[in-house]
Amino acid sequence: MEFTIPVADLKAGLADPARSVASSAAHPVLSCVLIVAGTKGITITGTDQSVTAIQRVFANIVESGEVAIPAKVLTSLLAKIPSGDVTFTSTDAGVCIKSDHVTSTLHVVDASNFPRPPAVVGTPVTIPGPALAAAADCVAHAVSQDTSRPILSGVNVTITDSELTMTATDSYRLATHSTPISAPDGTAISAIVPPAALARIAKISPETVTVTVSDSEIEMTAGLTTMRARLIAGDFPDTGRLLDMAGSSKVVLDTAELHTALQAVSPTADSTQQTVGIVAAEGVMTISSSNEFGDTTTSIDIDPDAEFKMSVKLSYFDAAVIAPGVEQVTMVHSDSPLKPFLIQDEAGATRCMVMPVNRA
């Protein structure tokens, strides 16, 4: 194997595959990226066997072949080469990497042991990249970090011929985002996807993303980048009924003003649960916090008809407020002290539900 490539192109192409490499690999090959030199360029693959990143990069190929190189060592070496071209050549000792001023020979792992999962078999559906990115960003904050309930550690993705919807929940909060799309008639995809795969494909800001889903995997391709992920098995909770808050009261809030107010009281939020108190009455929403270091109170003007009182986890409330990415959000609240409240944009495309810590 031998190829030459601008080091800047190689660094960019290596980034996602290297991030996908297992942090503590059970087998040495899983700490490596697989580089395959083909006829028109190279393909770089990294995997932790849950999420796989595949990046194609144009290069000058002298001789085809493949090599598995420890990702951490390769990334560190390339960081020391600021510019110019690098040439990779397979040798009996490993792989020789040569630039204008640096020559390094790295030991490699038997590339035949690198995992190569079968192709994802399904009907490809192409959707707008911005729609996927917006949906993934809106719901990411509500994904559960509790490994005891793996279903909640994923994002529920549904695609029909007219709509893309993503939903996430950790049982204490819920976020869902729907956006209209145009897909082939009869499209019906439903899958629980690791959020890392969605975030990485969204990060490259593609114009379109082609999605293929099998019984156990999802593949998302945007240009020269492909993300594959093992689906999370199980049935995602039925969250639709939770979002039905017919008959509840509504109040429109300025996003920036509310976010600033929440940040103002954060230094003295309750040390145990990071909660803040919210009281709305007589056209004013008062936000207060108190802990062993002191207390803070701030307020914003609101609709004079709005009246409610609650205690809520600050980070949950703040994330719900900024998730829709709009200048104004609508807060839908119930008079019942046991029910959660809803934050949504005017169109209801993004809806974030938060469970209060308690209500008085």
By oligomeric state, this entry counts as single chain
How would a textbook summarize the main sheet?
Answer: 8 strands, antiparallel
Total tally of structural domains: 3
pLDDT averaged residue by residue: 92
Amino-to-carboxy terminus distance = 70 Å
Walk across the major sheet and give the strand order: 6-2-3-4-17-16-15-10
The CATH architecture category of the largest domain equals: Roll
Q: Beta fraction of the residues?
A: 35-45%
CATH-assigned fold name of the largest domain: DNA Polymerase III, Chain A, domain 2
Radius of gyration: 25 Å
* Count of helical regions: 6
Kindly state the number of beta strands: 25
Descriptive account of the structure:
This protein has helices spanning 7-20, 71-79, 129-139, 195-203, 255-265, 314-322, and strands spanning 2-6, 32-37, 41-47, 51-58, 60-63, 65-70, 85-91, 94-98, 103-106, 125-128, 155-160, 163-169, 173-180, 188-193, 208-213, 217-222, 225-230, 249-254, 275-281, 284-291, 294-301, 308-313, 328-333, 341-344, 350-354. It has three domains: 2-113, DNA Polymerase III, subunit A, domain 2 (DNA Polymerase III, Chain A, domain 2, Roll), CATH 3.10.150.10; 125-230, DNA Polymerase III, Chain A, domain 2 (Roll); 245-354, DNA Polymerase III, Chain A, domain 2, CATH 3.10.150.10. It has six helices and 25 strands. It has 360 residues and is of the alpha+beta class. It is elongated, with a radius of gyration of 25 Å. The strands form four sheets. Strands 6-2-3-4-17-16-15-10 form an eight-stranded antiparallel β-sheet. Strands 14-11-12-13-25-24-23-18 form an eight-stranded antiparallel β-sheet. A hairpin with a 3-residue loop joins β12 and β13 (173-180).
